[in-house]
Amino acid sequence: MFKVNENYLKLPGSYLFSTIGKKVAAYTAAHPEKEIIRLGIGDVTQPLAPAIIEAMHKAVDEMACKETFKGYAPDLGYEFLRSAIAKNDYQDRGCDIAADEIFVSDGAKCDCSNIQEIFSADCRIAVCDPVYPVYVDSNVMAGRAGEYNTVTEMFSNVIYMPCTEGNNFSPEFPKENPDLIYLCYPNNPTGATITKDELQGWVDYANKIGAVILYDAAYEAYISEADVPHSIYECEGARTCAIEMRSFSKNAGFTGVRLGFTVVPKELKDADGVALHGLWARRHGTKYNGAPYIIQKAGEAVYSEAGKAQLKEQVAYYMNNAKVIYDGLKEAGFSVSGGVNAPYIWLKTPGNMTSWEFFDHLLEDVNVVGTPGSGFGPSGEGYFRLTAFGTYENTVKAVERMKTLL
Ligand code: MLT
Questions:
Q1: Is 246 in the pocket of ligand 1 (CB under 6 A)?
Q2: Segment 184-233, tens digit of pLDDT
Q3: Cα–ligand 1 centroid distance for 134 (angstroms)
């Protein structure tokens, strides 16, 4: 009789956002008359920008014509998109990244979870705590995370780096040396950022101990302060120690469209001199047939002059929501952080409630959905995340409802 991959059995319960989805669905079924406001999962609500829609229409028309029809996309991405990314996201910011170091995919979530495949099974991983659950869960599936301790809610082989109010939600270097370090800035879930000097510290540390930083920059478009780096490649030495992952979901509203990319510099090599660039290309070629042409054309439009202007407005819209949440809750007496360079607000649960107690309280008493901090890791207990990706009207309404809780 066949056996399943036992590593999957070590995962606690269902995936965080699936659990939330199920709870909300059950509540809605029992109370169909209630108007629920969803500020849980970081899903966008604004329609795709006109420049993107126009590019997609044009690409659809090309697919209808014998001369311009496209079949399989190149597995690493179309040249037109890889060049646009290299120029706009990197070279224009002074980062030395070439188009052929960019691997286009169907989203950063897949890349974040798949990238661990190219590393040895005994690599030690370090993650911020709280953390986007995908990093840990994908390493659990690969058998790299060790055993789950139900008391501490931690995996034995994972190095957790607590991010608390005490350290301004910014991790310290771990006591034991990791091989792979996951960093996400601007941070999901806390909304915290680090300065360029602080990120340089991580790059120097990784180069010194021979580790790789897996840098998730999905929320880069939300940076508003000058000393916050947009890419890890702004730091000297990052080409020999860092892989960066980006998404079109948050900066361009592609959550339902799917597009992302990963940067693997050619200098990045393991202890035996094996280049990760070649391994990731090999993986892509074997397991992936490339993001669709129509979607990559939509991605190219993100970098057009019209696209840039329209998306700037979209980001400003969501950041206005972030301000509405931050200011409104602070004024009401909540303890809040984040929301300045990120579309997430991180708040302390009132009255020493656990994160899930507050989730239930919010859902049942004011019909607002958020994300319990403990779902992101043990240091998230007693915290709660709200997203700024709702509509303005719903965001205002949610804040007014939450004010009645204190
Ligand atoms: C989140 O809510 O943390 C994100 O939207 C999830 C994701 O991007 O996969």
A1: no
A2: 999 999 999 999 999 999 999 999 999 999 999 999 999 999 999 999 99
A3: 9
pTM beyond 0.70, yes or no:
yes
Helices then strands, counting H and E runs in the chain, come out as 12, 15
Nearest to 318 by CA among 65, 80, 6, 43: 43
Query: Taking a C-beta distance cutoff of 8 angstroms, is the pair 368, 404 a contact?
Result: no
What is the rounded average pLDDT for all residues in the chain?
Answer: 97
CA of 65 to the centre of ligand 1 (A): 37
188 touches ligand 1 (CB under 6 Å): yes
Model pLDDT for residues 81-113, shown as the tens digit of each residue = 999 999 999 999 999 999 999 999 999 999 999
Q: Is 110 in the pocket of ligand 1 (CB under 6 A)?
A: no
Mutate which of 24, 109, 188 for ligand 1 pocket (most atoms within 8 A of beta carbon):
188
The secondary structure of residue 179, as a DSSP letter, is S
CA distance 212 to 119: 10
For the stretch 259-294, pLDDT in tens is 999 999 999 999 999 999 999 999 999 999 999 999
User: Tokens 């990052």 — which residue?
Assistant: 238
Query: Is 161:174 a contact under the CB 8 Å cutoff?
Result: yes
